[in-house]
Structure prediction request, 308 residues.
Amino acid sequence: MNNLNFKITEESELIRVDQALAGLLDRAGNKLSRSYIQKLIKDGSITVNGIIVKPSYILNYDDEVVCDIPEAKPLEIVPENIPLDIVYEDDDLIIVNKPKDMVVHPASGHYTGTLVNAIMYHCGDKLSGINGVLRPGIVHRIDKDTTGLLIICKNDKCHNAIADQLKVHSSKRIYHALCWGNIKEDEGTVNKPIGRHPTDRLKMAVNEKNGKEAETHYKVLERYGDATYIELKLKTGRTHQIRVHMASIGHPLLGDPLYGRSKDPYLKYGQLLHAKSIGFIHPGTGEEVFFDSELPGYFTKIIESLRK
Prediction:
């Protein structure tokens, strides 16, 4: 337990206790998020003049704030016997067809049931460690509701080689998606920088001032009136790139809860996006390899219903 006491000065008076503590604790070498500070206050681990207060309590000059901060516990990621759809495997890498609703690696709110938990059970300690204990073997990722192919690296040499190919965009990644609206041109390119959304921390956005270069090429496969089935190739790999780019040209993905239509009958499926194919130079053999996958069943059923 880390015990810290603060005597409130003019600098911190007339400010909410949670807001003031964010700065005071940071300067004391304990950088904590405001939400975590609020949790500590509600749990009674932070008191003002010996009294448990609300996070909204306004501090007064000479108030005494006592903080009992629990020691951080190392996070242990546990291997789990979760079935995997393995498309290919050798001593260097595994190609996995990730299902819908599976998070790629542990993060806040998702410490079990992830692809990493499943891969750790399957591979044991034979995974690259470059991305640390939370992301062993993970060299790239896709969103929870996006399905399709991912490369998992079993050693650091393989990881570095694949990461370099992703960085210089020499790997071939092909996605299939359903988007709203009837795209009239047979193919096109969206070249718009992507960065954090200015007001919504959950979203990315086209950001001309602070965004990073992002380029997506799309090709129409089929048209269904108010929806279009498309193939997409990425030159870059920004977070939510396809979803942001297609929404930016007025064709958001069907089922997309962040960037799509508010009244969308496909929201229960999540964004209709599938990482269908991936090609790269195999680090072990030096040969070019290419892997393909089938669309998930619910995806093909939606296409069939749109055709009718």
